[in-house]
Amino acid sequence: MTDGERIRVAVVGPTGRMGRQVLEICEQQPGLEVVGRVGKPDEAGAVPISSLEGAAVDVLIDFSHREAVAAHAAFCATHRVAWVLGTTGLDADDEAAVAAAAGETLVFRASNFSVGVALLVDLVARAARILGEDADIEVVESHHHHKVDAPSGTALTLARAAASARGQILEDVVQHGRSGICGARPRGEIGMHALRLGDIVGHHEVHFGWQAEGLVLTHDARDRAVFARGAVRAARWTHARRAAGQRGVVGMAELLADA
Length: 259
Fold this sequence. Notes:
single chain; alpha/beta; Rossmann fold; 2 domains; 8 helices
């Protein structure tokens, strides 16, 4: 970004938890200009995505509900707007919309924009690769009681990192909770557990257990601003690479590798 150049940002969900934080950070940092607030008509100051002038937006920062993903994907693809996407719980149609957008623009997608979580994913993959299927793996995530999807997108990212490092497909080996007479734990299984408690911002644990030893890798997010700062950092990074002509889907691993 040259001196005097500004990145024009549109923020989805300006009255939501993440949207408010992203707006505050954008307004505090030099070189960023909020040119749009996208949301439902009953959100103060918000407009539908169709009301935005695509040529006036460089980056869309999106932590909306999955019902809005298809419309936002179409907007970003049509106008070649870089898309920072943090929405989780997408279905097959949503995934197809994201893939189509990535053919026209650059999509920065992450289930968690914390630098600490990105490092945790890397450590989990390394541990799983070294220990292999001799180690049992359990992923435990805790969030506030308003969260609507489970397990969290971050927990799934961690579990997929572990499975991939062992040459597995997560869907083939995952076990979501246990109840009743479920038998001995199969070799290679990855357990997933979701807790919903009070106002917890985000807590993730990955447990490894093998003969006579155990290891727990943990990340604790104590302030939602952690994710908002990461999203704004991703917006700057994605804008620069989109301006250089890059398309496709990228994430925290690429951002950290380029740091």
